[in-house]
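Hello, quick one for you while I still have it in my head. Could you read through the record and tell me how the tokens relate to the sequence? No rush at all, and the record is pasted right below.
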Amino acid sequence: MTHIYNFSAGPAVLPQEVLKQAAAEMLDWHGSGMSVMEMSHRGPEFISIYRQAVADLRELLAIPANYQVLFLQGGGLGENAIVPMNLLGRCAQPATIDFVLSGSWSGKSIKEAARYASVNVAARPAGDAFTSVPPQESWQLTPGAAYLHICTNETIDGVEYNFVPTVQGDTPLVADMSSHILSRQIDVSKYGVIFAGAQKNIGPAGLTLVIVRDDLLGHALPICPSAFDWKIVADNESMYNTPPTYAIYIAGLVFAHLKRQGGVAAMEQRNIDKARLLYAALDFDDFYANRVAPENRSRMNVPFFLRDESLNETFLAGAKARGLLQLKGHKSVGGMRASIYNAMPTEGVQALVDYLNEFAGR
């Protein structure tokens, strides 16, 4: 049987070890006689799962004590509304939110935030294409902005930040890290809020992770639903409403797996090596093209185009026959995209590289 490698951008590949453990525990978690799917979120069994997941995530990211870890629902798109509803109350109204437009997802964040406040696009690409992060010296930031929002890895466009922005005064830095969290080391203390949909590097769809500094709690607007008020969620250990219990369980297994692999530092080096391998094949000649500036090329999401795009369907059919799945690019940009998250083994990237070379006749 052909070995399958899934390059989907999300929901995405999970570690085989995690899937096997979840399968083994599906009907009876640790002798409880219950599947995790059946447990009360307030029972001691699930509480232990939840608390271990939080502890492991804190260790993996070295999260300072003055930050809360919240497990929510709504995805990254939901957080585009939840963030302003939680942070705008800190400021005199009307407030302004600063954004850096670096790709499709930051564009979605801007559109949603404009429903709640004035939006200042502090920087944007010089042209129509998203191929780099605008250099910080070009940013036109608002004094006293409610916060500065960035998307540190653009899943669709394959653009990744290679620096942590400097903010003005006490303006909080908010980062959407959905598609590269846990793939590289970060200094959490540089950010006021970090959020991420789980379905890339953490677990199944349906879970959203929020890491928020304590002083940013308790400022929700009156229109914010109580289930999305970070202060209420934090005070109730993410159980003010019924949380996505099974997704939290899988996330916990992934966190434990990452620790066994050597933690985030070890994963970062593997991701550097995988990305270098793939980009070298794409750059070998002009048969393929990745249009992102080299310094901002994503290690997680690698879009590319065939020189002759009439070959796209033939390329995809050949890839599928070799067990290389979900390589079609996002509908908004076309071309191809290989997402090589933490759980994608080096062998999978090498299999893709071998096919790229074969298809190009090298």
Remarks:
- The longest strand covers residues 67-72.
- The mean pLDDT is 96.
- The chain has nine helices and 14 strands.
- The CA atoms of residues 68 and 98 lie 24 Å apart.
